[in-house]
Design brief:
Bound molecules: N-(iminomethyl)-L-glutamic acid, fe (iii) ion
Oligomer: single chain
Structural class: alpha/beta
CATH superfamily of the largest domain: Metal-dependent hydrolases
Helix content: 25-40%
Largest sheet: 8 strands, mixed
Order of helices and strands: EEEEEEHHHHEHEHEHEHEHEHHEHHEHEE
CATH class of the largest domain: Alpha Beta
CATH topology of the largest domain: TIM Barrel
Number of helices: 14
Shape: globular
Radius of gyration: 21 Å
Number of domains: 2
CATH architecture of the largest domain: Alpha-Beta Barrel
Length: 409
């Protein structure tokens, strides 16, 4: 008896990889064979054998099948909400003013420090399940709402447990340098982070920093990254979000896997990312939610051959969304990306930002069978009828995910 699953009658199948950049590859009227949770082969409908040859045959009813989304930048482990800040911003206070006045990230730090490991785990698991229902099949999760050794470790321990519990790829990032804790000195705090880095080696795959005016400097980024690199951490950075500081070029020079946000990145920064093969992670949901007007130089990035990735930035302050479909449609409309460029950025590009592109993100033979059956036979409907949920079923490692229906609040 074979273990092969046959997903047949696929109207449109999407694959994404380096050779199709910046777009995707489309196949019509085909079947997908899955073995041991991985893509085995793509067949023409006419090549399918008798149903006895497969453990199960699943009829996709002519619908589109796309790779699961990779959400390569999230802060989804947290406690508390910040709806009052949202209203303050609507009245004209800026995101950075709220942080400078001791709110923003620091508000979530207070709530997260008070929460137990179990509270954090339950809330984050519920969020992730909702994200999976909306099409995400691989995640990156940052710490950064602890800002002390104990609380940062608590967050990353929760991250590790989520990985085991949900059995999906989860990349963990230590973001102790998210902001300076209330009442502490920046340089001393950074020194403490650097000194304690080895203790995070078993908890996190990478290290991140928020390099911004009145937060951490480019020199801080350099100091942190040099040490993190020595210890074998991947490097990723929040850079050039609200102002241009120079963190992007510096991070790229030090070999960062990704530079994230980039609204104020310049052609020099783009050149540095290209040279270092650093992926640009763009998060239009933040611009939408904070009411910003500045967009990254997306087309200069594409022309230069920089790989684009898209992510939610899911967090309670600047982007409380779980929905990669929303992010893709925003990227298409706000940045004028074609549906194929946006889909490639939310799958292959985002997997590359995590160094996982060989294993997932493209629906290629030998990759994890993480994919979505859509409620349409044309994936472009996601961009056209924007705001709808087009995910009919999410499959991770070839298994159908039992999706919760209600929003995770
Ligand atoms: O990526 N820019 C800094 N950090 C997060 C926001 C975190 C928060 O506001 O809680 C971001 O947008
Ligand atoms: Fe972020």
């Amino acid at each position: 008896m074979t273990d092969t699953l046959c997903f047949r009658n696929i109207g449109q199948l999407v694959q994404a990889d380096a050779s199709t950049q910046p777009g995707i590859r489309l196949r019509k009227h085909c079947a997908l064979l899955v073995e041991d949770g991985r893509v085995h082969k793509i067949l023409k409908e006419s090549e399918i054998k008798s149903s006895k040859s497969y453990a199960r045959v699943i009829d996709c009813q002519g619908q589109a099948v796309v790779p699961g989304f990779v959400d390569c930048h999230t802060h989804l482990i947290y406690a508390g909400e910040r709806k009052d800040e949202m209203v303050d911003r609507m009245r004209g206070v800026t995101y950075m003013e709220i942080l400078d006045n001791g709110g923003g990230i620091l508000n979530t730090v207070k709530a997260t420090s008070r929460a137990t490991e179990k509270d954090l785990f339950d809330a984050a698991r519920k969020r992730m399940k909702r994200m999976m229902a909306l099409g995400t099949t691989a995640f990156e999760i940052k710490s950064g709402y602890g800002l002390n050794l104990k609380s940062e470790m608590k967050m990353l321990t929760v991250g590790k447990k989520l990985r085991t519990s949900l059995k999906v790829p989860v990349t963990l990032t230590y973001l102790g340098a998210h902001t300076v804790p209330a009442g502490e000195n920046r340089e001393e705090y950074l020194e403490e982070i650097i000194e304690n880095l080895p203790r995070f080696r078993d908890l996190a795959d990478g290290v991140d920093i928020f390099c911004e005016k009145d937060v951490f400097t480019v020199a801080d980024l350099r100091r942190l990254f040099l040490q993190a690199k020595l210890l074998g951490f991947d490097l990723r950075a929040h850079v050039e979000e609200f102002s241009h500081q120079g963190g992007c070029a510096e991070a790229a020079k030090l070999g960062a896997l990704s530079c994230d946000h980039l609204e104020h990145a310049t052609p020099v920064d783009i050149h540095a990312m290209r040279k270092a093969n650093t992926t640009a992670v763009l998060m239009p949901g933040v611009t939408l939610f904070l009411g910003g007007e500045k967009h990254p130089l997306v087309h200069s990035m594409l022309d230069a051959g920089v790989t684009l990735a898209l992510a939610t930035d899911c967090n309670p302050g600047s982007s409380p969304t779980y929905n990669m479909q929303t992010v893709l449609t925003l990227a298409a409309s706000m940045y004028r990306l074609t549906p194929e460029q946006a889909l490639a950025a939310g799958t292959y590009g985002a997997a590359k930002a995590l160094g996982g592109e060989k294993d997932y993100g493209g629906l290629l033979p030998r990759q994890r069978a993480d994919f979505l059956i859509l409620k349409t036979n044309d994936y472009r409907d996601m961009f056209y009828y924007f705001g709808e949920n087009f995910v009919d079923a999410t499959y991770t490692a070839g298994k159908k995910f039992k999706a919760p229906k209600d929003p995770a609040l």
